[in-house]
UniProtKB/TrEMBL annotation:
<feature type="domain" description="Amidohydrolase-related">
    <location>
        <begin position="158"/>
        <end position="358"/>
    </location>
</feature>
<dbReference type="Pfam" id="PF04909">
    <property type="entry name" value="Amidohydro_2"/>
</dbReference>
<protein>
    <submittedName>
        <fullName>Amidohydrolase family protein</fullName>
    </submittedName>
</protein>
<dbReference type="InterPro" id="IPR032466">
    <property type="entry name" value="Metal_Hydrolase"/>
</dbReference>
<dbReference type="InterPro" id="IPR006680">
    <property type="entry name" value="Amidohydro-rel"/>
</dbReference>
Length: 359
């Protein structure tokens, strides 16, 4: 068995504070928007099967029990106790929590307390800009407050995160000029209502480059297909500036993300979605990623959002896949056991501790 230290979950979100019915629970198992198609269920996915395999025993039930029975037991224990049991069984010692998603989600301190772990905040750039816009009366005030808030947030966060990679042009290889930024801000603010999301590519680009100047690691939702090309151009433009880029949510384009991590010294690849979404096939996906990326450039995450069950299956599938892949290479004589344990420790926690400056 390959040994790993307590995991650093380098990209996750809080869990829901409320009791969940079948429909709400199931919606969080899906990878898209909205409910499953009529006559189908998101429990019939690799993620759904993994939840039924690993989570029921933590609540006193047999593996693979039916969803209705599992949720009844969850309600019987209550959301706080069920969450505590699940999170404390993950083996995660440190959570890096992106606080930028909507909903009644626990923040870093609550997640840390429930999981008997440490937690640090990742600041979502778009949400920060939206909050600044809600309280800024003019374009000049908005832009001044935006720069101040980004730099102020850098003092308490371990990283910034942005969905800019999913918008392609937001990752142009140079910052926009002052006139472009002012014009974009003027148009966005003029037509904006309180609570509207930021999607303007010029403002996203401006935000991302402010974050690069802060020196904190920047997590980028890399998107799929063509946006990978923009991420590569952005990586080339930011080389040597002192800011590490961590590519998130590239699955099923995980090989492209691993390739970029191998090409650029300051680019890292997140394993979360590739492992969690592939379920019983996680070892195959992990082996593909290890073909392309240096071992010091890969970071574990659960990518969990809303359900503590997703933290459980993220951690369990990762450890199981790592054991199968590295353990297989040890058994074949291709790797030594000492090297396998060392690489497992890097991916599980060591790389994240280095990139984010964790003690």
């Amino acid at each position: 068995m390959i040994e790993t230290p307590p995991l650093v979950d380098q990209c996750c979100h809080g869990v829901l504070r409320t009791e969940l019915g079948l429909g709400t629970f199931e919606a969080h198992l899906g990878r898209g928007e909205g409910p499953p198609a009529p006559g189908t269920t998101f429990f019939d996915t690799q993620t759904g099967f993994a939840v039924r395999r690993w989570c029921p025993p933590l609540l006193g039930l047999e593996p693979h029990c039916q969803p209705a029975r599992y949720l009844a037991r969850r309600r019987e224990l209550g959301v706080i106790e069920a969450g505590r049991r699940l999170l404390r069984a993950t083996g995660i010692g440190t959570y890096l929590v992106d606080t930028g998603l909507p909903g009644d989600l626990t923040g870093p301190p609550e997640l840390a307390a429930a999981g008997a772990a440490e937690a640090h905040e990742i600041v979502r750039l778009e949400l920060l800009a939206e909050q600044v816009a809600d309280t800024s009366g003019t374009v000049e005030t908005f832009l001044a407050n935006l720069a101040e808030c980004v730099h102020g947030a850098a003092a308490g966060a371990v990283a910034f995160a942005s969905v800019g990679g999913a918008h392609g042009l937001a990752l142009a290889p140079q910052p926009p000029d002052a006139g472009e930024v002012r014009g974009a801000a003027d148009r966005w603010l003029a037509g904006r209502r309180v609570g509207d999301r930021l999607t303007h590519p010029v403002l996203l680009r401006h935000l991302v480059w402010i974050a690069v100047a802060s020196g904190l690691p920047l997590q980028l939702h890399a998107g799929t297909g063509d946006p990978q090309r923009y991420v590569g151009e952005f990586a080339r433009a930011t080389a040597g500036l002192g800011t590490d880029l961590v590519l998130l949510h590239g699955y099923p384009y995980h090989r492209q993300a691993a390739h970029l991590a191998g090409v650029f010294p300051h680019v890292y690849a997140d394993l979360g979605p590739a492992v969690v979404r592939s379920g019983a096939r996680a070892a195959t996906l992990l082996a593909e990623i290890l073909e392309l990326a240096p071992f010091g450039k890969l970071l574990f995450s659960s990518g969990a959002h809303g359900l503590p069950e997703l933290h459980v299956v993220g951690a369990q599938l990762f450890r199981e896949a790592l054991g199968r892949v590295l353990g297989g290479w040890v058994a074949e004589g291709a790797w030594s056991r000492a090297d396998a344990d060392r690489v497992a420790g890097l991916i599980a926690s060591g790389n994240a501790r280095r990139v984010y400056g964790l003690s």
